[in-house]
């Protein structure tokens, strides 16, 4: 059983908790951390994408953020982001390496595996500059099918056109794009 903090619109815990499954069944507001791993190759910005496991409860087999995760009750955005990076990709980073890009509040409802999934979350978005070969990553096979680097411009076009299955929000790509260009 995975417990999440119930939070307000800014991501502050209310003092109550909820099981993750119930949060997604009832649309209860909770927190996540998103980390975009980025690099520059020959003057082009690239992002590391993961392809989610077909067994995931939402967006199975879709391209996604480099690393993302729900924040367990009692944890904070940054510590959760660092833990997910290590668990999902084998990347060990220091807190000062993560660049805070902003916070997003969003909600959506969709059906997966015959069940409604109602996600209602506040997410802190981070970027990590790291030039690492995809083949050198230690991926969490229960959650991730594969990883690959993609030019940021190509990723933005993919998201806008919907040419491949993904669960990437254009707003996040715009956030990291503005940060990485600095």
What features would you describe in this structure?
With 182 residues, the protein is an alpha+beta fold. It has one domain: Nucleoside Triphosphate Pyrophosphohydrolase, CATH 3.90.79. The chain is built from 4 helices and 9 strands; from the N terminus they run ββαββββαβββαα. The strands form 2 sheets. Strands 3, 4, 5, 6, 7, 8 and 9 form a 7-stranded mixed sheet that branches. The model has no long low-confidence stretch (mean pLDDT 91).
The computed structural class is alpha+beta
Order of helices and strands: EEHEEEEHEEEHH
Helix content: 10-25%
**Low-confidence stretches at least 5 residues in length (pLDDT < 50)?**
none
The name of the CATH architecture is Alpha-Beta Complex
User: How many beta-strand segments?
Assistant: 9
Instruction: Could you tell me the CATH topology label.
Output: Nucleoside Triphosphate Pyrophosphohydrolase
The profile of the biggest β sheet is: 7 strands, mixed
Strand content: 35-45%
Shape: globular
The N- and C-terminal alpha carbons lie at a distance of: 41 Å
Mean pLDDT: 91
CATH class division: Alpha Beta
The name of the CATH superfamily reads Nucleoside Triphosphate Pyrophosphohydrolase
In angstroms, what is the radius of gyration?
Answer: 16 Å
List keywords for this structure.
single chain; 182 residues; alpha+beta; two-stranded antiparallel ribbon; 42% strand
Question: What's this entry about, in short?
Answer:
With 182 residues, this protein is α+β, with helices and mostly antiparallel strands.
């Amino acid at each position: 059983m995975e417990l999440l903090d119930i939070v307000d619109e800014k991501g502050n815990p209310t003092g109550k908790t909820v099981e993750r499954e119930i949060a997604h069944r009832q649309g209860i507001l909770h927190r996540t951390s998103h980390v975009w791993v980025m690099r520059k190759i020959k003057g082009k910005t690239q992002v590391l994408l993961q392809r989610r496991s077909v067994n995931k409860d939402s967006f199975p087999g879709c391209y996604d953020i480099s690393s993302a995760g729900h924040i367990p009750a009692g944890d904070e955005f940054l510590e959760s982001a660092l833990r997910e990076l290590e668990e999902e990709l084998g990347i060990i980073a220091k807190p000062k390496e993560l660049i805070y890009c902003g916070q997003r509040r969003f909600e959506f409802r969709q059906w997966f595996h015959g069940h409604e999934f109602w996600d209602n979350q506040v997410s802190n978005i981070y970027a990590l500059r790291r030039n690492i070969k995809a083949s050198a990553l230690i991926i969490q096979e229960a959650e991730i099918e594969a990883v690959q680097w993609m030019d940021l411009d190509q990723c933005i076009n993919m998201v806008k056109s919907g040419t491949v299955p993904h669960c990437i929000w254009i707003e996040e790509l715009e956030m990291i794009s503005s940060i990485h260009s600095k």
